């Protein structure tokens, strides 16, 4: 028993000591959290909400985008009309100055980054990797806030042969309860 005590407890003490500065920094009164105070962390807030997702005239799914971790993370939880799901983590990286999204579903993984363009459109570029084939393709996402409060989402994949971007998914997000 003494050996177990000597092995485990020093680790617990070290872990507790390392956690204290983080906990204290989060609890400092009257100091706004950087993810709430810095406007760069709020650039994608137009996408936060509960949404009905419409392509053409048909509802293709629902999506919930929530602000988590003190505003440092936007968590996406997608459900298609057929019951498929996917999730993404979206966050501002203060080191690179870019937004990044990591999407994971049963079909593929997307990892891309970027930011707002001059028109206020969130544009992210990177790669999609398909689980079944292992193929990797250049991928682009565009989220355009509309004057009526909707958000147009366009997902595009680059054709390796032509070099052109082709739409994979284009839909409009309508806030639930707003028609």
Task: Walk me through the topology.
Blueprint lengths: L1 H25 L7 H4 L11 E7 L2 E11 L4 E8 L4 E9 L4 E8 L2 E9 L5 E9 L5 E10 L5 E8 L6 E11 L4
Fill in the keyword field for this structure.
10-stranded antiparallel barrel, alpha+beta, Lipocalin, 2 domains, DUF1579 domain-containing protein, single chain
Question: Could you characterize what this model shows?
Answer:
It is built from 2 helices and 10 strands, in the order ααββββββββββ. With 179 residues, it is of the alpha+beta class. The chain has 2 domains: 34 residues; 137 residues, Calycin beta-barrel core domain (Lipocalin, Beta Barrel). It has a 10-stranded antiparallel β-barrel. About 8% of the residues have low confidence.
- Find the CATH topology of the largest domain: Lipocalin
Tally of helical runs? 2
Q: Which strand order spans the largest sheet, edge to edge or round the barrel?
A: 1-2-3-4-5-6-7-8-9-10
Distance between the termini: 65 Å
Task: Look at the structure and name the CATH superfamily of the largest domain.
Answer: Calycin beta-barrel core domain
Large-scale geometry: globular
Signal peptide: 1-25
Keywords: Signal
Protein name: DUF1579 domain-containing protein
